[in-house]
Amino acid sequence: xxKRALLCFVAAAVALDLSAQCNFNFKKVNLGDGDRWxxxxxxxxxxADPYLLQEIRTVxxxxxxxxxxxxxxxxxxxxxxVSLTSTDTTTRRYILQSQGGQPxxxxxxVTFAADPDFTRLxxxxxxxxxxxxxxNNGALFKTELxxxxxxxxxGRLVLHPLGRPGSDADPQMRYEFRAxxxxxxxxxxxxxxxxxxxxxxxxxxxxxSPAGLYIVPTADVRLYNVADGGTFGTIETQTxxxxxxxxxxxxxxxxxxxxPGPELRLNIGFRTLEGTGVLIFAYRGGQxxxxxxxxxxxxxxxxxxxxxxxxxxxxxxxxxxIMDPDGGSIPMYSLTDNVTNDPALFVPPTRxxxxxxxxxxx
Length: 362
Hints:
Radius of gyration: 26 Å
Largest sheet: 8 strands, antiparallel
Number of strands: 28
Number of helices: 3
Strand content: over 45%
Distance between the termini: 14 Å
Structural class: mainly beta
């Protein structure tokens, strides 16, 4: 029986003399790769439902206790499933207490292993869209990147090209802040400096600090076109996978855009975090007129005109819903002026975290 399926409440600490053993035979059983466990016990003589299970964990140096009322799953035994997806190996204590009959209890520790795939996703920042490529009307589209950090910070910039799942062969280069950099690293055309052309997305992956922390530099990103008369562009910010990932409450799943007039081009897309299925719906007057549901691989940039994706001619005022119900990607859309090529990129606003050391989700 899962934690989410039962009543959870926070209560005042209950005094418990663990020297009064219940003979619960309280034990843990590994259900996965050390990230899912089952707590099991047998009924002790003189005890009765419901039992009280206390979970004790440490978060940011603070001790937090939660209590759960548990009804045994049979006449002779009880069980409780616990799981934790985390960037770090984490230990929690569990105390099982009889609420009826003799006051007694037993406790054990459960160590949850760090999840390597989750760790890879969380310990970085993502710039959803970057590019260096010829644009319309003879313009050149570029991406300027400025990193701000402290001396000694280092890591990698990794480009995932448009329409290609991420791999170890993706273009990358090192960054490192030295004392002479005055806390700033600048890349006038970062995609070109990675040795490629075209569109893609960019990961900023920090090395661990001497203290074992993973600190990402702050990224200032400008998407711009070089054309007759100067440059035209927009500002983009780095994002965190945590704000979009999985079924966690509060993660971002969707964007809605109203189709503009013919003076603007509308592109829509997703930067995936892992393999996922996405949904795109187009509505006119409240009625569904077209849809698409591509399945995308991990570290993949999907980005194209709305009409080519949906296979329909759109009209001004139509609305498009761009969504990932499983939370495996970052949704986005762009509006580009057909005359000046002046772009605007829309990504759901997120926090800009620089410390990406520890994340966990149950």
